[in-house]
Specification:
The protein is α/β, with parallel strands linked by helices. It is about 40% helix and about 20% strand. The strands form 5 sheets. Strands 14-21-20-16-17-18-19-15 form an 8-stranded mixed β-sheet. The protein has an 8-stranded parallel beta barrel with strand order 22-23-24-25-26-27-28-29, surrounded by 4 helices. Helix 3 packs antiparallel against helix 4 and helix 20 crosses helix 23. The longest helix has 20 residues. Bound molecules: phosphoenolpyruvate (PEP) and magnesium ion (MG). Phosphoenolpyruvate binds next to strand 23 and helix 27.
């Protein structure tokens, strides 16, 4: 039997039909409205490769050094070729086509969806096993080819790379294929039958026009409905839905199109439809006896269920903490950031008075949390060894080589630097409390002195003021959170600077990465790019970039990751081996950095672009490219030419610029005409260049004001111009983590906000609040 009908399948058939197939069979059996269909079993795939005698060669060719990109590409190509070029045995062919004909309604040719359903349960993210492959609106002519394409999707470069990296045996993964009647959905979306973080009896429904692909892939911001299951008021947030996926009547293919004007801001779900979804949601949850994450679709008033999975993120231990912080607010579980730092004490009352408690040093609290430990004054790199677990690093300024010691440390204090300095950025991503810009910590504190660091207030106190109970608490990673997209129309993303932070960042449930700074990858090589290339060759350099970016892109896939090309000022490069060749600049912040340097050295920049090209070739279609420190359309046209020269199609890929200089803000219209897809506010630089305040100079830190009316005016004008030109806007500077800036931006209509890891939840919270207020104001 090559196929099994959905009504013959139950959860116990996982090995035969994969996760998706088993879930659909189970739902069908429970009498839920699932579109009819069948599964081409995993055994069919297995016999196909075995009977054709291609199995051995298949597993042999994919056993390659995945860091050798040309070997990997060749392996994927050969493996897929083996599958795609092997004909179906006649009996299997007939059986599949016969089943297909039964799916059709009364003699008409059926349109079906063909989806892969991988069986490797031990893969933490089965998407890497090829589960991404889905073909919509398929008819008899293409059916068999599509089934084979699903099988071949087990051997994309990404899938091979992933299994190899994680040590999974290629031959242990099988794949089934679901063939199911298409529901030409008028509306569709996802539903959580209980609150995904707290488990509260509240359903959360996201809905948009057309096929569900637009919602699942994140192409559209869906409407959001929060429905208390005990019958309270439904909380509705209507989003602007710009695109939808639907069948093109002429070609029969699924295409993305613009939502007609009158439907863009119209509410998707009626009361009746919500009631029906809730009813079905309760039935699914009862059936499985655990909360579910359901994909659904509606056609001519009928609701269909397309998929159901358990929600795995509800954390029992969490529920109390969450409701205590923000009782009654449904987004609390997703947005409350205070629970992420167990090292942090929030009340001084709990302190044991082991010291005087006097404030001995003051600075900028740049990474939250309260800790105590022995101060270790680090003045030279070779003193890093003296920093042990639980010590507090005290230094003039952190450097890239210090990252391993920063990971061991309980806290970090620096003399220099502002909120956007290396120390501030890295400590936040590591989740280590920090204070920067104290001016005198290295001279005031003594080596070995026990102090308490308060990263919220920015003060260092004498003695150990952290209670033993607090110390006994384990340091928790960012608590696992829901993979659910935040319940906001404005997207909330996260900033990542060190690839090691990618997992923590992804666990926040953010909508993607708004800024991945590549310079930290380079800085961690401890050599300037020129030096590294001199010693290891161009290819090794490109591979380093591919490797670093890939780690983050994998962690977030398919959520978008906006990767910025190199932007390190020469004084940062000077610290590295090879740095002696960097030009001496009077003011590096105004100097040879960002796109200026890239355009000046297109030969070096070409390596970065080549890394992007390889990533696209590897299938990382979630990678977007962002160019720093551009000033005008001329910069953009020149950059675009270099992209094209490097084999990256600017029309096909998503790319854009940072708005970091007043010039770029004033010139955004020309840049929009040059073809950018997005403009992202780098408020760290935009503030420094608008106010003429060095962002790293602690002497003028009190003048560094991202909310200065002049900065805000530039931002507001850019958002307006971009809206007229259909260019997305976002923020990825430090200010995106500040509630006041969030309020301002949401009111101005920004598309997305990218925040620091520790601030993502609070920002989601704030965005939600402002959006709701806007909504209320509009109906009042
Ligand atoms: C900015 O300028 O706001 C920004 C995000 O870039 P960086 O901090 O890396 O200069
Ligand atoms: Mg910048």
């Amino acid at each position: 039997m090559a196929v099994l009908w959905l009504d013959e399948i139950s959860a116990g058939d996982l090995e035969k039909v994969g996760g998706k197939g088993a879930s659909l069979g189970e739902l069908t059996g429970a009498g839920l409205p699932v579109p009819p269909g069948f599964v081409v079993t995993a055994d069919t795939y297995r016999s196909f490769i075995e009977n054709a005698n291609i199995d051995e060669e298949l597993f042999e060719v994919v056993d390659v050094d995945v860091d050798d990109s040309s070997a990997l590409a060749a392996a994927a190509e050969r493996a897929q070729e083996l599958i795609l070029e092997t004909p179906f045995p006649e009996d299997v062919r007939e059986e599949i086509l016969e089943a297909y004909r039964e799916v059709g309604d009364s003699g008409e040719e059926a349109f079906v969806a063909v989806r892969s359903s991988a069986t490797a349960e031990d893969l933490p993210d089965a998407s890497f096993a090829g589960q991404q492959e889905t073909y919509l609106n398929i008819t008899e002519d293409d059916l068999l080819d599509r089934v084979r394409s699903c099988w071949a999707s087990l051997f994309t470069q990404r899938a091979i790379y992933y299994r190899q990296e994680k040590g999974f045996d290629h031959s242990a993964v099988n794949i089934a294929v679901v063939v199911q009647q298409m529901v030409e959905a008028e509306k569709s979306g996802v539903m959580f039958t209980s609150h995904p973080s707290t488990g509260d009896p509240t359903m959360i429904i996201e809905a948009a026009w057309g096929l569900g692909e637009a919602v699942v892939s994140g192409a559209v911001s869906p409407d959001n409905y929060i429905v208390p299951r005990d019958g309270g008021d439904v909380d509705v947030t209507v989003a602007e839905k710009k695109v939808m996926h639907a069948k093109d009547e002429e070609t029969g293919e699924t295409v993305e199109s613009e939502v007609p004007e009158e439907k863009r801001t119209a509410r998707v779900l009626s009361e009746g439809e919500i009631d029906r979804l809730v009813e079905l949601g309760e039935r699914v949850e009862d059936h499985y006896d655990t909360p579910q994450d359901v994909e659904w679709a509606i056609l001519e008033g009928t609701v269909f269920m397309l998929q159901s999975r358990p929600i795995t993120t509800i954390d029992e231990g969490d529920a109390d903490a969450t409701s205590a912080t923000d009782a009654g607010d449904i987004t609390a579980g997703l947005t409350d950031g205070s629970g992420t730092q167990t090292r942090a004490a929030d009340s001084a009352e709990s302190a044991t008075e082991a010291g005087t408690g006097d404030v001995i040093v003051d600075g900028l609290g740049s990474s939250p949390g309260r800790v105590s430990g022995a101060a270790r004054i680090v003045t030279k790199l070779d003193e890093l060894d003296k920093v042990g677990e639980g010590d507090i690093i005290v230094t003039e300024m952190t450097m890239p080589d210090m990252v391993p010691a920063m990971k061991r440390a309980a806290g970090i204090i620096t003399d220099e630097g502002g909120m956007t300095s290396h120390a501030a950025i890295v400590s936040r991503e590591l989740g280590v409390p920090a204070i920067v810009g104290t001016t005198n910590a290295t001279t005031t504190l003594e080596d070995g002195q026990v102090v308490t660091l308060d990263g919220d207030k920015g003060s260092v106190l004498e003695g150990d003021l952290v209670s033993p109970e607090e110390e006994a608490e384990p340091v928790e990673e960012v608590r696992p959170q829901s993979p659910v997209k935040p319940m906001t129309a404005t997207e909330v993303k996260v900033n990542v600077s060190i690839p090691e932070a990618a997992e923590r960042a992804a666990a926040t449930g953010a909508d993607g990465v708004g800024l991945l700074r590549t310079e930290h990858m380079i800085l961690s090589l401890n050599q300037t790019p020129a030096k590294f290339i001199e010693e290891n060759g161009e290819d090794a350099y490109i591979k380093e970039l591919v490797q670093g970016i890939r780690g983050v892109a994998d962690e977030f896939y398919p959520r978008p990751v906006r990767v910025r090309t190199l932007d390190a000022p020469t004084d940062e490069f000077r610290q590295l081996e090879g740095g002696e060749d960097e030009p001496h600049e009077h003011n590096p912040m105004l100097g040879y950095r960002g796109i200026r340097r890239s355009l000046d050295r297109p030969d070096v920049f070409a390596h970065e672009l080549e890394a992007f090209r390889r990533l696209y070739e590897l299938g990382y279609d979630n990678v977007e490219i962002m160019f720093p420190l551009v000033n005008d359309a001329e910069d953009v046209y020149r950059t675009k030419r270099l992209m094209t020269d490097a084999g990256i199609d600017p029309e096909k890929r998503t790319w854009g610029v940072m708005i970091e200089t007043p010039a770029s803000a004033l010139a955004v219209e020309g840049m929009a005409e040059a073809g950018i897809d997005f403009a992202s506010f780098g408020t760290n630089d935009l503030t420094q260049y608008t106010l003429a305040v060095d962002r790293n100079n602690e002497h003028v830190a009190d003048r560094f004001d991202e909310l200065h009316p002049s900065v805000l005016r530039l931002i507001a004008d850019v958002i307006e111009t971009c809206r007229e030109h259909d260019v997305d806007t976002s923020i990825c500077g430090q200010a995106g983590s500040k509630p006041e800036m969030v309020q301002f931006l949401v009111n101005e209509g920004v598309h997305s906000i990218s925040a620091n890891i520790d601030a993502v939840r609070d920002v989601q919270h704030e965005v939600k609040r402002v959006e709701q207020k806007l909504l209320l104001d509009s109906v009042r």
